[in-house]
Structure of Lon protease:
Amino acid sequence: MIESKFYMNADDEMDFIPIIPLNEHETEDNTELEVPADLPILPLRNTVLFPGVVLPITVGRDKSIKAVNEANKHNRLVGVVAQKDSNVADPGKDDLETIGTVAKIVKQIKMPDGGTTVIIQGKRRFTLDHFTSEEPYFKAHVSLIEEAAAGNDDNMAAYIANIKDLANQIIQLSPHIPSEAQVILKNIENPSFLINFVSSNLNTELQEKQQLLTLNGIQERAELLMKLLQRELQFAELKNKLTNKTKTELDKQQREYFLQQQMKSIKEELGGDTNELELKEMRKKAEQKTWSAAAKDMFRKGIEKLERMHPSTPDYSVVYNHLDLMLDLPWGDYTTDSFDLKNARKVLDHDHYGMDKIKERILEYIAVLKLKGDLKSPILCFVGPPGIGKTSLGRSIASAIGRKYVRLSLGGLHDESEIRGHRKTYIGAMPGRILQSIRKVKSGNPVMILDEIDKVGADHRGDPSSALLEVLDPEQNHTFYDNYLELEYDLSKVLFIATANNINNIQPALRDRLEIIDLSGYAIEEKVEIARRHLVPKQKEAHGLSKIPFRINDKVLEKVVEDYTRESGVRELDRQLASIMRSLAKEYAQEEKLKPSLSIGDVEQILGKPKYSNDIYKTSNMPGVAVGLAWTYVGGDILFIETALSEGKGELRLTGNLGNVMKESASTALTYIQANAKKLGISADQFQKKNIHIHVPEGAVPKDGPSAGITMLTAITSAFTGKKVKPYLAMTGEITLRGQVLPVGGIKEKVLAAKRAGLKEIILCWQNEKDVAEIEEDYIKGLDFHYVKTMQQVLDIALT
């Protein structure tokens, strides 16, 4: 049963428009109403029908439909009574009120859904004497109640005026009640009908409406109605006050909340709320995780918080993303390591040529892991010039031991939060890149490359290298704490491999935690082998020439290496080979054929004249010029030291963009020569009459370090004595005032640079002999080494 609320309840949606009789005086013509002895009884569940009021009702119960149909066949009269309890679905005779209203069926409408809607009009009140039948519908004997006269005294007129006034005030305070209601009230003149109409539409309890119907005296009914209207007016005023107060607070967020609630209802109708399904799925995933007690407790609290929150609130996404990270991280999920040492060696040899020291270290790690079953992963650091394959070696190691591979670039990193993560309460907070990488590979023991660890910066946002101390300490990283996760996470099974070009740029505390493995540059023979095995096939594939038969022999590759590149690695070599392949691709596209093999002449035609030449080292130099060996972050290089004397007062001038250490080496060398001038055959007064100018070519390139000490000594002595320096000779070593020669670093790179330059002899400190022994003999074939202890030995060998 749908109850009509014409006004008094602004929150209820109206399902129909109340119908008003065109002639209210019809209520006065019901005195002659003939009621049958057995009147069909129609129970109403949620409302009370008053005389004179027209009401549409939906009839759904079988008994009610039969009663309506039977009444329609005869005089169209039914007895309408209210149920005492509206929750009773199938009321008995004891569940019905004894006072009701005789109603006339104005119209019966069959609805499309099979239901029946009946428009009824109340006629007279009655007292239910007794039921004469309960099946197939209720029938009863009723007695009509005589309506008391309204009277025309001033007292009654005041009641009526007061009722109209109260009703009009309520209509004005209720925005959902149409303004036409005031016009209707104004035009009702019959006091009895006014009371019945207002009572019918009053927003009050069913028992109070029944009491209004039961009271016989019209004045008593008017008094009770006024009390109920006064209460409803107070409620309407309070509600209107609160509405006006909170209306301005109905902002976008509240509007979205109401829309979300409606959307939630729609989703439930379509098959359930997606948020509930997501939370259920998250709980299911959590059951499969091997979490610590702290992690389980954090997840439980987070999921309970989500269940209490609406998805539109800002904190919902913060909590959800945090729990999502916990579920995505591999807690105790590890890949199985491969302990096949032969296969590991095969994979490493296939991917990279040479690098025996690193390969042996990895095989040692696998062997210990195989025997012990568990081992804290070492923190390796590959140090060497660019382009020699440090980063790609990490991928090969992962493949060799059967682990997943992830690379983390640290170059230019300034913010500590990139390592440790942001606190999750910040807008846009994320976990650190360590946990992000582990989340991506979904494995707790990957091979993680920390690329360019020597290029980590530091500013006001923190020092990332200090944050890496915890990550790269095997004694601490099993309890690594990320600010976003807010839990300890075990990184001890991760195989960290750092790469760097210059170890001196790494913070000392961090460097202490790394197992340093030096990677030297490649010899010419190694570059030719790498080009033949890896670079040429790669460039053929990249330029669509893999299926076209032609070959590039080792002599041609050696020509490209020697005349068109000057590097420790193979990146420039790769670019030169790419240039050759592009030219061959163009030729094949035009002529649809290629020569079976590439000649040296073809290389010069494609790449142009050689960029580098060794002839400058083979020509006879004038006195005062010596060749030194230098180490740069891109590998070894050749350095000329030029000395010239001029008339003056014995001043020393240094040019060529030299650092402080190199300037001090020049001063030390000059002081030694002055102290031993007689032994060297130099007149002491020359130092007072000659200005000395030392220049190192390529002035745009900064140069520093102590390793040019013996070269400067040789150049200055050559200038003063007029003796030339032996051709094809290079040297490197630090000097002291006592005339001692000290060892220097970067020997392999320097020796390979001398070999590339076509030099034949090298002077080194005797303590560097062990460094030369580590170089493959094939790569230094044709080089003679002189190992010295004193500066006098250097001069004896170098000056002719």
User: Anything to note?
Assistant: Confidence is low (pLDDT under 50) at residues 1-23.
